[in-house]
Amino acid sequence: MATSEENIQVFVRVRPMVSSGVSDCDPTKCLHVEQGNTIRLDSHKHSFTYDHVIEEQCSQADVFGKVGKTIIDNCLEGYNGTIFAYGQTGSGKTFSMIGGKDESDNIIHEQRGIIPRAMEYLFSLIEREQAKRGKDNIDFVCSCSFLEIYNERIFDLLDSNCTGKQLRERGKQDVYVEEATEVKVETPAQAMDVLATGNSNRRVAETSMNRESSRSHAIFTMAIKCIETGEGGLQNIRQARLNLIDLAGSERQRDTLAEGARLREAGQINKSLSTLGNVITSLVSIANGKPRHVPYRDSKLTFLLRDSLGGNTKTYILAAVNPTSRSFGETLSTLKFAQRAKMIKNKAAKNEDVVGNVRLLQAEVKRLQEQLAAFTSGDITGMPVVMAAAAAAAGCSFFAASDSACKRLAANTAVASSSSTCRLGVKRLATIAWRCSSARSVPGRRMVRRSSSNIKPCCGVSPFARRWPTIAATDG
């Protein structure tokens, strides 16, 4: 399983100077962009450098091209991916992730966000792969789920009657929501219907800084499974999960003037975002060689995103900032958060497996066992593969080792490497054959029959491993 270690990629988007709420109009700016990847705050001595800074004039298509396309490409190859938007309330996170809406609450086509465009791009890649390899040879299965975390409780946005879901842990890294609704989709339109259904159930409210402030963290997940069928019924299966997350924005009560239920919601939002900051601080310390406890379990959000933060996922963060002078404090906090997150290293592994050929491998092992039994009894009829390989491995001339025979054994062993049981069986048989040939090649040495479980190569490494190091290495 291929593994790649890389830092979390961080992108910063600067919101245009437009009003998103009742009292956030401010004609002055507190920042400016330098060289396409650096932000400098006015009245602040430090500058912040990221993977890319998306300026105010950039379109939604530009944002997706920078942030979304690479993640989708990786998911189709079998890597898990996560994109989440972080920032203060009213900074443009929901607009970036979902898009702008008209009066009927429908997404405006030109203003589609990362999630709708990701669905369209994903299915365009699927169609291209099927046209290239044929629908009979490659198949894709996609399903969607949509969750929200509201006041530290998890709700299924695709179930209007949901009263709460439980987080469960499976293994060291796999965290999932129990009995979450998953809808199978085959077209971008079906995926958009799932998004629209869930989005209509999401909790939003008006504050003094945002007319439609998200009061919960929304997590849209796409599960992708690719089944590629080869010769002899061999199936290559790749799986990936794509998490597209719109976090609720951080709030300050003196700015939002929240009270009652809105104030309690803001408290829970800030608490979970604070835990997210603590997790990132701990992971940065670990990346710098300082052992630390990572408080994933202190919040439902961080526990659910555990694999996306320092785990088996390629993660992109879109930090949305408000350029107005009134938002200087929150903008500085967001930029510092994004700078720390950029130092985290994830170890993404390709989720790929080979199945469907177990019977063929079992038949091959049985055939080799029969040949080995004939060899140990002195009957070498029909034994060119094992005998030639054993002679070549042992370095003896009792039997001539032909190159074609060695290649045939190498091919058999390479095929068997897709199953751990059969792989071990083939290598053990070759080791037995080598020991047998060594015993036969020494004059006066008596042949001793032993069970295969007791046969061990001398000095820890058999000549079989030296003869074919790339094949032996597959045994792990």
Question: What's this, in brief?
Answer:
The protein has 476 residues and is an alpha+beta fold. Helix content is 38%, strand content 24%.
Architecture blueprint of SSEs:
Blueprint: E1 3-7, E2 9-14, E3 31-34, E4 38-41, E5 47-49, E6 52-54, H1 60-67, H2 69-77, E7 81-87, H3 93-97, E8 99-101, E9 107-112, H4 114-133, E10 138-150, E11 153-156, E12 167-170, E13 174-177, E14 183-185, H5 188-200, E15 204-205, E16 213-214, E17 217-229, E18 235-246, H6 253-256, H7 261-287, H8 300-304, E19 314-321, H9 328-341, E20 345-349, E21 352-355, H10 358-376, H11 384-394, H12 403-416, H13 420-441, H14 463-467, H15 469-472
Parallel strand pairs: 2-6, 2-19, 7-18, 7-19
Antiparallel strand pairs: 1-20, 3-4, 4-5, 8-9, 10-11, 10-14, 10-17, 12-13, 15-16, 17-18, 18-21
Query: What is the count of β-strands?
Result: 21
Query: From the helix content, strand content and strand pairing, which structural class follows?
Result: alpha+beta
Distance between the termini: 12 Å
The portion of residues forming beta strands comes to: 15-25%
The radius of gyration is: 29 Å
What profile does the largest beta sheet have? 10 strands, mixed
For the residues shown, what is the average pLDDT? 78
Uncertain parts: 388-410, 412-424, 437-476
Q: Estimate percent helicity.
A: 25-40%
Total helical segments: 15
Shape: globular
